[in-house]
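Render this sequence as a predicted structure.
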Amino acid sequence: MKLTSNTLETSKKLLYKLVYDKLYTMIINGEYSINSKLPSEPKLAKILGVSRMTLRQALSLLQDDGLVKNIHGKGNFITTPEKCNKKDFLELIGNPIYTCHNQPINDVELLFRLDFESEYTKQVLEKTSAAIVACERYYKSNNKVLAYAFTFVSIETIMEMNIDLNNKDQLLDFLENKVYTTSNSSILEIKRSTAGNVPNQKYKLVGGEQCDLILETLYINDYSPPILFNKYYIPCQYSSIRIKATKKNNLHYEKCTL
């Protein structure tokens, strides 16, 4: 199993890719079965005859491929790459938690408050407002908080949508469902963030030290200010962002045939 010295000498700059190719082949050929645990990193590095740093670079590529999953404190496990369907893609309007999170969400807890507007809310909502409804959502799986969302929506929008702020279920349904059926377009921006866990949050995100941050602005039409602005924090270990690209002429053809 160990990589030969001749091979290593001729490919020093790409050593981690050679290790990646070797492990990839072993996994695909079934030498390590699905859900099995790989040997510890020191042991696997010794087996392959490489440094732990080189091994970790190769494992990172396998994690990107969805063939290996690292569970903190437990080790590296063989997984099956998830198959995509049409609803898995981020370019379709819908709550990105359910398209970009690789764990099932079975509960959402909502907290909200009324705030004065700020320069920031005027910027993201593209208008002035008498007040802002600031909403926090905690996405849970088996009582563990695996994602977090922060939302700004103007009080005027709340009134236009006939939402009763005394009815928390109605507000949650608006944020999770109705806003996406009402909106006709959105602007999404993806960033990396370390702000998934902040001191004033009610819950601490599991694995939230590094998060993928999705900034989402939703519009009913191109001529009105946004209906609301969302910030979704997904810990990187649970994040799986997919975007389906299509040639411009194909998009034009599809629009013409509707």
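Summary. The chain has nine helices and eight strands. Residues 168-182 form the longest helix (15 residues).
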